[in-house]
Every structure is written in C-alpha cells, then in structure tokens.
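Shift notes (night). Ran Glycosyl transferase family 3 domain-containing protein while the centrifuge was going.
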Amino acid sequence: MFLVSLGVRLDLPVERVKELVDEVGITFCFAQVFHPAMRFAMPIRKELGVPTTFNILGPLTNPAQPSATAIGSSSLRVSPVLAGVIAEQGREALVFYSDNGLDELAGTCPATVWEVRGGGVTELRLDPVADLGLSAISIDDIRGGTASENAVIARAVLDGSSGPVRETVLLNAAAGIVADATLPGTSSGTLVERMTAGIGHAERAIDSGAAASVLQRWAAATQA
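Came back to this:
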C-alpha cells in the first residue's frame, strides 16, 4: 500500500490515530480498523473490479467527520448527491468530477465542481489549463504504478521536482485548502481566485520543506 511504502503504519488503534492529529497535524483512518466488517467486503470489492456503493459511503462515513473536505468522484450522476448529503450534514466541501472520468482535478480536461457552503450547493465549472494556467497534460503523464513506485514519485514531489505530477498534487491540495477556507485568499472571491490562492499555499508548503517534514514526523510517530 502507498502509505505503508512511505513508512506510515496503518494498523494503529483508534486512540492513537486520533492523537496523531494533534501531534503531527495529519492522520489516516484505515477502514479496516474503524469499520472491522470491511475486511469481509474488501476481497469481494477487489474481485468485482467495478465501483460499488462503498465508493459513495466511504467519504460520507469518515469517522473523523471533518468540518471541510475535498472529494473526487468518478460518477457524474453521484457527485451532486454526495454534495447534497454533505450539505445536509452541515459540512463544507468541494466535490469534483473531471470530464474524462477522473476522480481528481488535473490538467487533462475541465471539471465540474459542486461547492458546499453554508448548507447550500453551487455547481461550477473549472478548467485547470484555461483558468489556472496549468500545463495541458494526458493521463499517461500522471499515471502511477506500484505502491513503492508511487512512493518514490511522492517523495520526489515533496523534494521539489517539477512537472505534471507536481501540478496535479498542487491542484488537488488547493481543493482541500479552498474547502477549508481559513487561509488567506481562500474564503471569498471566485472559485478561480480562491483556487489560485490555494495553489500558492500548497506551493509554499512543498517548497519550504514543511510538507516533507510533516510526512517524516508522521511516519516516525506511527512507528514509535
């Protein structure tokens, strides 16, 4: 698994998972720890090889219940439903679906974004290339590999490597930053203006070494 290849233990008890939020500012809620019945469903999901209802339930049953979240969806039909449920839960979010079916934002094509704020949902369009000045890329430019290969790619990005993967990481990090709307420039203005500010915050986190430091401290804390 990707995070394991980065040195992060996932089989921690629930209390330790909660403590890591305060200690290092990041944590991971492993479904098989928080929802033990998932160990029975997981093998069947893998055998089916197609999206199931768990793809919808996952982001809605996050045990942390964050006040703000960014969710990539692989279904145009389901995306507004997800946004509506999150609005009913009283949370803020950006839910997005790329025109080519990707459940992330990328310079491969425009995307539809459902912004959840103040209990309402607004449907918007976002073109990472035309609106944000990102490079036009193909899916092959950001295609991953094995967990260990992806870990190498992730470390390279955190070490400051440039290119399509970095831009895609910045773009999706910006979505989470804009959903949270607490950093300068992310709470008001058009979506493009706020995403531009979010990308700037994400760039500074990587280029300052702060993001790499968090990963290092996170991995060490899970192994302690």
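The mean pLDDT is 93. Residues 104 and 112 are 11 Å apart (CA to CA).
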